[in-house]
Structure formats: C-alpha cells, structure tokens
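Data card: per-record layout.
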Amino acid sequence: MLEGYDIIYFAPNTWEGLWRTRHQFMSMFAQKNRVLFVEGRTSLHKVVDQFRQGTLRPSDLRRPVVQEVISNLFVFRYPLWAPISGHFPLRQITAGIRRWYLRHVLQKLGFSRPIVWLHRPSMVDLINDIPSPRLLLYHVVDEYAAYGSVTPEKRRRIETQEREMAARVDGVIVVSKHLYESKRQLNPNTFLIPNGANYQAYSAALSDPRVPESLQSIPRPRLGYAGLISGNIDLEMLRNLALEHPEWSLILVGDVRVSKQMQAWEALLAQPNVYYLGQVEGAQVPHYVKGFDVGLMPYVLNRQVRNSCPLKLYDYLAAGIPIASVNVPAVREFGQYIHLARRPTDFVQAVQEALADNSPERFRARRELAAQHSWEARIEQVSETIETLLASKGSQATDGEA
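The structure for this 402-residue chain is written out next.
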C-alpha cells in the first residue's frame, strides 16, 4: 500500500451513509497516509428547499468544517451558507469562500502536494482549488451521462466536462471493461480496477449463527436484494417473480428512490410474499445478506447498468450464497458462479437454478473467489497504479529539465 502521502478525495455526497468504493479505498489509505474526504458541494436551491421542508436547521449552518472520523481520515464539509449559485456575482463570491475554507483547512492540517481524486466530471473546476497537486486522478464508477434523470442538454454538458477532466488529470481509474474502452479514448493512462468484496466483514457475519430478527420470521426460500432501490431495478420483473412463485419470499433491503416508478413499487409491495425491511446500517448488511438463500441482481439493462460493476456481486460471493442475475457485462466473467438470465423472461429460471446450487462445496468456491477480489487486493492494485503514474510523471519532469 502507498505510505506517507497526503490524499484528497472529492466525493459527490457525504461520508455518512452506505459505504461505496471511495469509502473502502480512503479508509484503507488512512492506515498509512493522511486523507481528506471532501463532501459534495450543495446548491442554493437545495439549501432553500431543505429549510422549507424543515430538514435543515439554523444550527446546521454552524457545523464543523472539518472533523477526524477515523485516525488520519478527515471529512471536510463546505459551509452551507456558501452554496453553489448560478447567478453572477453570487456564484463567484461563494466559490471564493469555499476555496478559501478548503485551502485554510489544508494549511491547518499541513497537507502538502496531495494526490487528488475527483469523482464527477462537474468537479473539473475544483482542480484549480488545490495548490501544487502531486497527482490528479479521475475516478469513474458509472457512466455519468447515462443517468436516467439527465436531460439531453445536461448530457452534452457532462460529456464536455468529462473530456476536459480526462485531458487535465494524470490518470483515470474505472471499474468496468465498458468504461475502460470508452475512457481510454479520452486519456491513454486509463486503468481498470473493479470493485471488491468486504471479505472480512462477511467472514465475521458468517461466524455468528444468528440473523436479524426481521428475517427470522420470513419463510424460506428467501430471495434477497440489498442495496439502492432505484430506477435501475426492474420492479415489474420482481413482481412477476413474486406472482409466479408465491412459495418464495422476496426480501428487499435498502434506500428507496423510485419517485418515477411509485406505482410499480406499490404493486410489488402489495404481494403477500414480498418483504421490504427498510434501510439498514452498512455494518449490518452482511448479517442480512447471509440470511438469503439466493442473492438477486434484478437490474434494468440500460446504458448505466451495462457500464457498471455492481457491488452486489462481490457482497453475495463473500456471503457464499447462490446468485441470480440479469446479463450484466461485468458479471459474465464470473459465469460459472452466477446464474444468468439472458432476458428478463428468463429470470425465474435463473432463480430456480440458483436455489439448487446450494452445496457446501459451491459455498466454499464462491467464498474463495470473493477472497481473490477483496478490497485489500484492490488497494494494492490502486497503489501500484499510483506509483506507476508518479514514476512516469517524475520521469517526464526530469526529461523536461534536461
């Protein structure tokens, strides 16, 4: 692992909540480096809406700007009273305030020549906020222009920002082969490092024979999905699954964001064999997943999903449970361990095959595969990539001086 560096990660949202790739990487890097996790900027429109809805209190405006959440890992929060505004001159004034606060914190912490990670194309302007970065990285975990809520005009803006971002950074790290093929055209220093498995957390959960109380009363077989429930989940396919097999229990765990699919979501929940258990803390997720008889990956095969590397895949493998999935490209290389549905109409058959794939030998095989793709293995790949880029950049600087 890298050691002795200062690292800044510009994230799209907060440190709290469901842990994602960035949380895994930065918490591990903090073991031997100092890390500043910069939470996402908010807009004036969102701040006003939160005040109106009562979800934002006046005391929130006085919250700490920086806080050490674990040893050597600091979380920086932009002051809410300096949000992004689209109007001149307020936009320039608040941007200057945010830049001053960030640089003040960097100076206070003694950060020098940091390795900087940027998560979204819209963050390209933040490059100018960091004095003398050692290395600039663009971390791509999704095809951002393919999000369902993106309008054609916004898509063009994202694509323009991404071209500029890729041109300015020293390297691009992507999580899927599809993303690798598209992003390496923008920057030749593009590296494929997929998501990983929290193997140790699942090992600890499996050593405890108990499951959460909310699972205990649900009859088996239990078909489970744990994660974000959004427009990328095929709710109609799940409803058909529940209707065709009323003897199966369908369990959903996670945050729900289906405002445009509310009717389909309500129709799914109306089935007597469907159980929504709400959102749970990240540390508790392995205890739920180990109680599933089959892990479901019931995605809509849109452009975003085709470019993704689902964390669910590695979670289910680490739990040792059989997996039924739609035909996501990133899943195909694990074909002998996954039961794939080539079409949505084949998903019931994939689940049936997964239910039969429950021998102790197959359980161990899935766990062994997860161990090979652990976050510990991924952090070594990332460290090697960064060392390669640093060496290349140092070589170029020496050549320039010559």
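Known properties of this structure: The chain has 16 helices and 14 strands. The longest strand covers residues 135-140.

See the next section for split statistics.
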